[in-house]
Amino acid sequence: MAWHDQDSWLTAAFAPKLSTIVVTLLLTLLLPILLHHFIYRRATPTTLPTFLLLGPSGAGKTALLTLAERNQVAATRTSTSPLAVEALLPEGFTPASSHYRSPGDPTFERSRCFLLVDTPGHGKLRHFATAQLADLSNVRGIVFVVDAAAVAEEAGLNEAAGYLHDVLLTLQKRYTGAKTSKGPKEIPVLVAANKEDLFTALPQHLARLELEKAISRIRKSKATGLKDSGVAMGGEEDAMEDEREWLGEGGEGPFEFQQMEEVGTSVTVLGGNVLGSEGSDVKGWFEWIAEHL
Ligand SMILES: Nc1nc2c(ncn2[C@@H]2O[C@H](COP(=O)(O)OP(=O)(O)OP(=O)(O)O)[C@@H](O)[C@H]2O)c(=O)[nH]1
Ligand SMILES: [Mg+2]
């Protein structure tokens, strides 16, 4: 049967037959819908973007979590287990991924959803946070909450800085230990200096400085400790140099959060307060979350 025969498929395709019209109509209507679904499925991840709440005990992580979840503050007590809640970015904040979406788009609402994971800050319960840090595949950012009034004092400062040091070191190791040449996805860190409503709280730039100084001290004592043990065992220093057990390059001199950019971690310090007589001030933190959502 040649293509120009009366009952060939090509002739039928051009003939004014009902079946031809129906098939063409269905094809033109369904193809865009199917294509949309196919592309949309691939572009939209099934799991929500996650933000991890870390920080010493009493810093205000659970208070911030309840504020993000219910838009109001509630009484909290020391957490003993991790808690994940689904939160919605408040009105007025646009996720960075949705800058070109119109507010009427149903996906706009969905793009404002995120998962907030609270961890206990008590020293004996840190393994929960360590477990969260071990799998960062869905994590878009880490919010490290510190009590700005507590870091004004030696003990509080050392605790917060020690914990922050360990978190940053984990992120650095993840970056330097990556197998692919592209390196893993960058995970930004927000140091949320909470309780700025208190009279004794350090303002954000001072909190930043104090934390940097304290981390410098920790890094230095760690480096000397490593060197000492290396000498005691008669080991070579080169071997330790490779391990990169300290933050930033070299581990000499003062530590600055900016040094973390080299290992794919940007650190931002922002002040705010969840509670307070004049209401809460968490605008900067939500802006940061929106920027990374
Ligand atoms: N003044 C003031 N108090 C706050 C603020 N945020 C939290 N608090 C108080 O700080 C205390 C500790 O807050 P939590 O949210 O329970 O602390 P946490 O970080 O979850 O502590 P852990 O669960 O032990 O890790 C609570 O009594 C809060 O009321 C704030 O912005 N200002
Ligand atoms: Mg808590």
Automatic annotation (TrEMBL):
Its topology with respect to the membrane?
Single-pass membrane protein
One GO cellular component term of this record is: endoplasmic reticulum membrane
Q: Where are the transmembrane segments?
A: 20-40
- Short name of one Pfam family for this protein? SRPRB
Per UniProt, the keywords (alphabetical) are: Endoplasmic reticulum, GTP-binding, Hydrolase, Membrane, Nucleotide-binding, Receptor, Transmembrane, Transmembrane helix
State whether keyword Membrane applies.
yes
Where found, per UniProt?
Endoplasmic reticulum membrane
Write out the GO MF terms.
GTP binding; hydrolase activity
Q: Source organism's superkingdom?
A: Eukaryota
Q: What is its main location?
A: endoplasmic reticulum
Similarity comment: Belongs to the SRP receptor beta subunit family.
The molecule here is called Signal recognition particle receptor subunit beta
Protein species of origin:
Westerdykella ornata
